[in-house]
Amino acid sequence: MTTLVHGSDTLTRDALTVLQPGFVGTTAPDWLLRRIGEGLSSVGLFGRNIVTPGQLAALTAQLRAERDDVLVAIDEEGGDVTRLEVKEGSSFPGNYALGSVDDVELTRAVARELGRRLARCGVDLNWAPSADVNSNVENPVIGVRSFGPDPDLVARHTVAYVDGLQGVGVAACTKHFPGHGDTNVDSHDALPRIDVDLATLHARELVPFRAAIAAGTKAVMSAHILLSALDPHRPATLSPQILTGLLRQELGFEGLIVTDGMEMQAVAATYGIERGSVLAIAAGADAICVGGGLCDEDTVLRLRDALVSAVRTGELPEERLADAAARVRALAAWTQAHRARGGAETVPGAAVQEGTAPGTDIGLVAARRALKVTRGERPHTPMTGAPFVASFTPVANFAVGDETPWGIAAELERLLPGTETGSYDESSAVDEVLATAGERRIVAVVRDVHRYPWMTAALDRLLAARPDTVVVEMGLNEAEPRGALHIATHGAARVCGRAAAEAVVGTGA
C-alpha cells in the first residue's frame, strides 16, 4: 500500500480528503492512484466506469491496493437512475414503484439486495436514497425518483432503504437536502427556487430527512436549490443557515454532508466550481462531489488548490476543513470495518457473478407488485401475436441520462417473437405509427404523459384510430387511464418493462 508522500502537509491532505472526484475509464488512471497515495480519500463512479460486476470488483480492488480505506461512491438509485446496469436497465424498480406498493419490508429487501451487489463489487457509499417529497408533478428531475407526494410515506420508505443499504455495510447518502421535490427546474441546468414558508418546509420537505437522521443515515447530500425562507441569497449547498444551522444544529445530524455535483449549472454558472467548493465547505459541507461531467486531474488539482488558498487567506477556517476531512475519514473507517467483518458476501471480488446473489429476483417481485392495470370500456384480450410497440419518447433528464434503455419492446420480443418497435417524438406523425403497425395490435409506451401536450395529442389520435391499443405509462401515473388496457409501471426500470410485458400477454399476476 502506498503511504502519503513525504512533504505532503496536513492542509493539502485535508483538501484532497474532502474531494469525491470521478474519472474516465474502466481501470483507474495513474493520476488517480497517485492522488490517492497523496491523501485523496474518495472516488465517485458513474456508468462510464462500469462494464460488468467482475470488472467493477477489479477496479475497486485496484483503488484499495493504493489505500485500503478509500471510499468508493456511486449514484445507484435503482429504477430509472442506474450506473451498475447503465446499458441494460436496472434489475430493481425505483422509489416511485416501491412507494406505490407501500410495503416497507419490500423496500428494505430491495435496498438490501442492491446493497449486497454494491458491496460484493467493493462499492461502499451510495448516493441514495432520494428522500424528496414529489409535491410538484411538473418536476422535471425528481418524479419517479421520489417515493411519492406524501411526506410520511416518503419518510418510512427512506428509513427502510437506509436500513437495507447500511445493514450490508454500504453507507446511505440521503438526498437532496432540504428537499428537491417542489421544483419545476432541473438544477443540472439552472438554479431552482422554492418560495414556501418555514411551516410548509417543516411539515413536508424535512419530514423524511428527520426520519433518515433518526435512523442513522451515514451521509446526507445537499441540493442546489434556493429556499428563500431559509436563505434568500445562496443555494442550500452553499448556505451556512441550511447546512450548519438547520442540518447540523437544529436536526442534529452528525454524519457526512456531501454536496451534489459541483459542476451542475445551479452552482457552477454563478460561482464556478472552485469558488463554489470553498463556499460549500465553509457552509458546513464535508465532501465535494464532482465528476459527473468534470473528471480529470486538472479539476482535482484546481479544487485542492482553491481550498488550500482559501485557508491561507483566511476565507475558510482551517478548523472547518479539518473537521470536514475528519468526517470523511470516520465514514471510511466505518465502511472499512464492515468489510473486515463481512466475510465473502461483502468482500470485493468474492465470487462476483451476475444473478447469483441472494434474493436475486426481489427486484422483479417488486416490479410486478407495483403494476397498476386498468381495463378500458372495450373488451381486452391478451396478446398472442407479435404487436407493434410505439414508444413516445421525451428528452431524458440529466440524472437518468440517455444511455439507459427503457420501454417494454425487448421484454415483449422475448415473450412474443417478432415484436417490432419504433420511437417517436414531438415531430413524429401518428400516421407513421399506424402505417408501420399495419394490422398488428399496438402498444403505446409513454413516460409522464401529463407533462407533454404533444404526447397527449398523439395518444388521442392513436386511440381514435385504434381503440384496441394498450397504453403503458412508465413515468408518473398522473393522467387518466386510457386504452383498451392501461398499465402503470411507476418507473422505467428494465424489470418494470418485464412486468408490463407479462401483463400485456396475460402471464403476469
UniProtKB/TrEMBL annotation:
<dbReference type="InterPro" id="IPR017853">
    <property type="entry name" value="GH"/>
</dbReference>
<feature type="domain" description="Glycoside hydrolase family 3 N-terminal">
    <location>
        <begin position="40"/>
        <end position="329"/>
    </location>
</feature>
<keyword id="KW-0378">Hydrolase</keyword>
<dbReference type="GO" id="GO:0009254">
    <property type="term" value="P:peptidoglycan turnover"/>
</dbReference>
<keyword id="KW-0326">Glycosidase</keyword>
<dbReference type="InterPro" id="IPR001764">
    <property type="entry name" value="Glyco_hydro_3_N"/>
</dbReference>
<dbReference type="GO" id="GO:0005975">
    <property type="term" value="P:carbohydrate metabolic process"/>
</dbReference>
<dbReference type="GO" id="GO:0004553">
    <property type="term" value="F:hydrolase activity, hydrolyzing O-glycosyl compounds"/>
</dbReference>
<dbReference type="InterPro" id="IPR050226">
    <property type="entry name" value="NagZ_Beta-hexosaminidase"/>
</dbReference>
<protein>
    <submittedName>
        <fullName>Sugar hydrolase</fullName>
    </submittedName>
</protein>
<comment type="similarity">
    <text>Belongs to the glycosyl hydrolase 3 family.</text>
</comment>
<dbReference type="InterPro" id="IPR036962">
    <property type="entry name" value="Glyco_hydro_3_N_sf"/>
</dbReference>
<dbReference type="Pfam" id="PF00933">
    <property type="entry name" value="Glyco_hydro_3"/>
</dbReference>
